[in-house]
Inverse folding.
């Protein structure tokens, strides 16, 4: 099952290596990992998406909690949360195809952010299913390149990750 | 007060009460060694950094204090790797200090540069690369704190050469402030109550205890627990010594080379109380047939151990000593009489046994039991890894914690002798015997020079079977007797070898020689190497074949 972990870490050199090293060392497969800042100075947030059963995730969370630089690990899968990923797609866009692309872009509430004589860059955000669907549509025009952030997520409502229970 | 980085290190070690360090110098720690010289800090120069790491480990296991090891950058640091991994697997508190190339040279493949924090990431509890002198006191404080608290383990501090010479202000912090590191010591009272109720109800309860009992100093509580509710105990390899061997309800070691009683008790129990033990595969063997009828109470300071291999119905996270103290207060004995009789019968009818007749080749088990008979219970035993290790575990009767020092988790050949040097440093007056193998001893025999020049009276008993015996045994049992690369022909004459280092060498080739050799060794005030030339064909029995149920014991029924 797909799981989403939010991990708050001290912003120290090597923390990312410690976390990703733990995943590979113990044989857990990460689908993607996104790292960025938080409102607290010196604290970063990592969002890890992985495929694992409940027992495995419990073990992962416990092992993560043992890393000295980790402040908080929270399994968002069991809670109501919203997740988004940002993706940039460079698509082939010969003049005769542009209106077709534009139509899809507006259907998906995406955005064209760069145009050249025969290509465009499109920006799209959403959850995994939406991005999958958008990629499928864009494939018809020809995708030259993709850059994606990986999934990031927050709990719904007023509660913060810090306020969840566990480590 | 202004000090340079090296002086600060010495001041930190002093503040932590460090009495001795083990190490080996080199270019990147010259400034540090200069301060060691000036301050006269007791330092044991080993002949290999691996030896220094194991010696610090042996010191820690024997004394309960944190061991300290120092090495230079690059090859010095990488030579610590096996020692750190050994300590990590058995949760032994160490602080390793390595030199690093000067800060401006880091990342340039400079001479003797190695990314030792990267290399040791998976085999240390935590590690640091120091880049700012002002952080030195805090990092040392944290390092000792992390190493010696919670589930203990090795911590490494990488110290660039230029930082050792840089001057700055020194103030050692009184307290550690680490919001991200807070071990849980007190067990949850609700869980403790639940555990007590389950224990009261159980008809066939069993205490299964491990190295955590020794680490937290809970041996008295463990015995009291077992006594007051009449529950038999089995202890893992790293837990040996936490229960006196003379205790009625002590069943010995479980697992691959465990006793009949311990394995059958695990198999038949309706409640297993795991105390500071981690259900290692050498204990459980095949998991899907392990203790299927038992409910599990698992007490451990490391939450990640609970439920890792075996599901726990009642998990209790906490320091085992504190949890046992709380439990003892509320325990009510249940009806375990029939069970205790059963277990005692197993113990009596199926003990681990061997036979030594006068004209038969010398049996290794006989050597171990003679060592015990003559050296007694206050002795500290260290072992290497292989058959001799298992015979030592089976036949050296122990009464006290911290008297059996062995690499359990990693199974490191070459551990025993340097660990004995460390243990002897912790207890200069006690007898320290390293039970080694002819293979293992050759992995760190260079430390004979260390023992010799420091006049450390370590006694090495080489169980010389001319083979990598444990591997040979597996080849005999499971690989059609094809002894691929396990014959140790060409080993040195260990008596002459000892003599070359100025160490007394003795040899016993028959059972009749054994007593005199051991007595001479024990009478000798310096180090001794005893070469026991034993039957090369002897196997460690009983044995549970890998991945089979623990009650299917080869040699278990024949005994
Ligand atoms: C460093 C290391 N290398 C290899 C092994 C694998 N191994 C386990 S036991 C053993 C044989 C040990 O031989 P010896 O020290 O003579 O002990 P014996 O089994 O003969 O008593 C070997 C090679 C190991 N445990 N450690
Ligand atoms: Mg051997």
């Amino acid at each position: 099952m797909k799981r989403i972990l939010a991990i708050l870490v001290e912003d120290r050199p090597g923390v990312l290596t410690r976390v990703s090293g733990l995943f590979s060392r113990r044989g857990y497969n990460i689908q993607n990992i996104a790292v960025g800042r938080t409102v607290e100075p010196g604290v970063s947030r990592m969002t890890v998406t992985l495929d694992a059963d409940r027992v495995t995730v419990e073990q992962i969370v416990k092992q993560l909690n043992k890393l000295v630089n980790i402040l908080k690990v929270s399994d968002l899968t069991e809670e109501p949360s919203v997740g988004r990923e940002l993706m940039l797609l460079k698509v082939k866009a010969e003049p005769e195809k542009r209106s077709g692309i534009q139509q899809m872009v507006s259907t998906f509430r995406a955005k064209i952010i760069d145009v050249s004589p025969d290509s465009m860059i499109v920006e799209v955000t959403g959850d995994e299913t939406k991005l999958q669907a958008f990629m499928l549509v864009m494939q018809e025009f020809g995708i030259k390149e993709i850059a994606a952030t990986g999934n990031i997520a927050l709990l719904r409502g007023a509660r913060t990750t810090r306020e969840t229970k566990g480590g | 007060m202004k000090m340079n980085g090296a002086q600060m290190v010495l001041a930190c070690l002093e503040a932590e009460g460090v009495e001795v360090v083990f190490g080996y110098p080199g270019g990147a720690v010259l400034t540090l060694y200069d301060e060691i010289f000036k301050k006269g800090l007791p330092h044991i120069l080993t002949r290999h950094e691996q030896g220094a790491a194991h010696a610090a480990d042996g010191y820690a296991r024997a004394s309960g204090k944190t061991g300290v090891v120092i090495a230079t950058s690059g090859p010095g640091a990488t030579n610590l790797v096996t020692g750190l991994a050994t300590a990590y697997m058995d949760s032994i508190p160490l602080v390793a200090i390595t030199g690093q190339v000067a800060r401006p040279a880091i990342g340039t493949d400079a001479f003797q540069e190695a990314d030792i924090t990267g290399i040791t990431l998976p085999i240390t509890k935590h590690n640091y690369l120091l880049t700012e002198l002002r952080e030195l006191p805090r990092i040392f404080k944290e390092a000792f704190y992390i190493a010696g608290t919670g589930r203990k383990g090795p911590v490494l501090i990488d110290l660039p050469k230029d930082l050792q010479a840089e001057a700055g202000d020194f103030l050692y912090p009184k307290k550690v402030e680490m919001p991200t590191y807070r071990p849980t010591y007190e067990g949850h009272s609700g869980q403790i109550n639940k555990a007590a109720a389950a224990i009261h109800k159980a008809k066939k309860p069993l205490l299964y205890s491990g190295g955590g009992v020794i680490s937290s100093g809970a041996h008295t509580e463990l015995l009291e627990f077992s006594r007051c509710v009449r529950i038999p105990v089995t202890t893992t390899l790293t837990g040996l010594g936490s229960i006196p061997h003379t205790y009625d309800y002590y069943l010995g070691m479980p697992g691959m080379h465990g006793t009949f009683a311990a394995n059958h008790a695990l198999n038949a129990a309706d409640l297993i109380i795991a105390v500071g033990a981690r259900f290692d595969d050498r204990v459980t063997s095949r998991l899907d047939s392990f203790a299927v009828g038992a409910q599990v109470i698992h007490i451990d300071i490391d939450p990640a151990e609970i439920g890792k291999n075996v599901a726990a119905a009642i998990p209790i996270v906490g320091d085992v000593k504190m949890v046992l103290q709380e439990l003892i207060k509320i325990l009510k004995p249940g009806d375990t009489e029939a069970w205790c009789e059963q277990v005692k019968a197993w113990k009596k009818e199926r003990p681990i046994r061997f036979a030594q007749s006068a004209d038969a080749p010398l049996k290794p088990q006989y050597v171990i039991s003679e060592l015990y008979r003559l050296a007694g219970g206050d002795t500290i035993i260290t072992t290497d890894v292989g058959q001799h290790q298992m015979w030592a575990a089976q036949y050296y009767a122990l009464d006290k914690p911290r008297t059996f020092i062995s690499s359990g988790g990693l199974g490191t050949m070459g551990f025993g002798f340097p660990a004995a040097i460390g243990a002897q440093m912790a207890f200069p007056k006690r007898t320290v015997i390293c039970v080694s193998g002819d293979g293992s001893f050759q992995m760190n025999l260079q430390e004979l020079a260390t023992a010799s020049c420091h006049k450390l009276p370590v006694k090495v008993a080489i169980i010389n079977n001319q083979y990598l015996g444990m591997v040979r045994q597996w080849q005999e049992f499971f690989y059609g007797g094809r002894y691929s690369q396990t014959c140790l022909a060409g080993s040195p004459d260990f008596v002459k070898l000892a003599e070359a280092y100025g160490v007394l060498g003795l040899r016993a080739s028959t059972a009749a020689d054994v007593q005199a050799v051991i007595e001479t060794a024990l009478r000798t005030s310096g180090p001794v190497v005893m070469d026991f030339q034993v039957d090369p064909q002897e196997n460690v029995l009983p044995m549970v074949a890998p991945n089979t149920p623990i009650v299917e014991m080869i040699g278990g029924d024949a005994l």
Observations:
- The CA atoms of residues 59 and 65 of chain A lie 10 Å apart.
- The interface with chain B takes residues 10, 13-14, 17-18, 21, 25, 55, 58-59, 62-63, 65-66, 68-71 of chain A (CB under 8 Å).
- The longest helix of chain A spans residues 54-66.
